[in-house]
Specification:
With 313 residues, the protein is an alpha+beta fold. The chain folds into 2 domains: 161 residues, 60s Ribosomal Protein L30, Chain: A (2-Layer Sandwich); 143 residues, Phosphoribosyl-aminoimidazole Synthetase, Chain A, domain 2 (Alpha-Beta Complex), CATH 3.90.650. The longest helix has 18 residues. The chain is flat and about 70 Å long.
């Protein structure tokens, strides 16, 4: 007689994992979380939305791409969860919304409780930085879809914004507005297929600085959302993401950016053109704001590390 466990799915281990992580997850809860892990769905009280004139729910989902393969190669999993939260909440806050809840999906060929716990601890750290409650998730063993040691992640987030404060405000964006970059922490979670290829082609060892977690911009964006006309989260496609927040008749004109650190290394070893860099990586700026020239000092007083990197044309 065959059992589910014989097929490669250990339900008991999965239940043990949920039991082990529940106290950690509950540290992200606030009074609006109405149930703990183990229900069929997560319950969240949104009565506070009555304080909005016209509340709008903003939702996003994302993953971390092949950065998981770098984590696996280096056997270091404690930061990849931060990346997951960052990729989702940065998309939410780019619309001027405050994220308030998060869910995760972790799939593997065979559940490694130690690895999964390290990933989850990163997710919890990310949620704490972003001000989100981790209200639920799914841990799936999928033998035959994933090899034993491979895994993938997905995250889902929800935020809220006043209708009148939704970004971008395309009808207000004008030729001559500044494009202001908020510094990144590195490659964030994009371009890793190319990065891994370049490192492999040059026979270079993968290093832990490649796992520097994606910066979470929630606090900076919420503090400046009343000043800006729009935010562009610089993810896959690099600075081409800026076009997504501009009116069709306008375009971004970027200043020349001097690549430094890990960006200079990847450009040199990959023999990449400046255009390749601009359209693949964040090049040191993971969020770009559109700011009226007359309000740039006001913006930089709140975000002093920001730098003008271009203008709207």
């Amino acid at each position: 007689m065959s059992s589910y466990k014989d097929s490669g799915v250990d339900v008991d281990k999965g239940d043990e994992f949920v039991s082990d992580i529940t106290p950690l997850v509950q540290k992200t809860f606030n009074d609006n979380v109405l149930n703990s892990l183990g229900g069929f769905a997560s319950l969240y009280n949104v009565s506070w939305l009555k304080n909005y004139n016209t509340p709008v729910i903003v939702s996003a989902t994302d993953g971390v791409g092949t950065k998981v393969e770098v984590a696996r190669a280096l056997n270091k999993f404690d930061t990849i969860g931060i990346d997951l939260v960052a990729m989702v909440v940065n998309d939410i806050v780019a619309h001027g919304a405050k994220p308030f809840l998060f869910l995760d999906y972790y799939a593997s060929g065979k559940l490694d409780k130690k690895q999964a716990t390290e990933v989850l601890q990163g997710i919890i750290t990310g949620c704490n930085i972003a001000g989100c409650s981790l209200v639920g998730g799914e841990t799936a063993e999928m033998p035959g879809v994933y090899q034993n040691q491979t895994f993938d992640l997905a995250g889902f987030g929800v935020g809220a914004v006043e209708y009148s404060e939704i970004l971008p405000k395309k009808d207000e964006i004008l030729r001559g507005d500044w494009l202001v970059g908020l510094p990144s922490s590195g490659f964030h979670s994009n371009g890793y297929s190319l990065i891994r290829k370049i490192f492999a082609d040059k026979n270079l060892p993968l290093t832990e600085d490649l796992l520097t977690p994606t910066k979470i911009y929630v606090n900076e964006c919420l503090a400046t959302r009343h000043i800006v006309k729009g935010f562009a989260h610089i993810t896959g496609g690099g600075f081409s993401n800026i076009r997504r927040i501009l009116p069709n008749h306008l375009r971004p004109m970027m200043n020349s950016i001097k690549f430094s650190g890990i960006f200079e290394i990847i450009q040199r070893y990959g023999n990449l053109t400046a255009w390749d860099m601009y359209t693949t990586f964040n090049c040191g700026y993971g969020m770009v704001a559109v700011v009226d020239r007359e309000r740039i000092d006001e913006f930089r007083n709140i975000a002093p590390m920001s730098i003008v990197i271009g203008e709207v044309q």
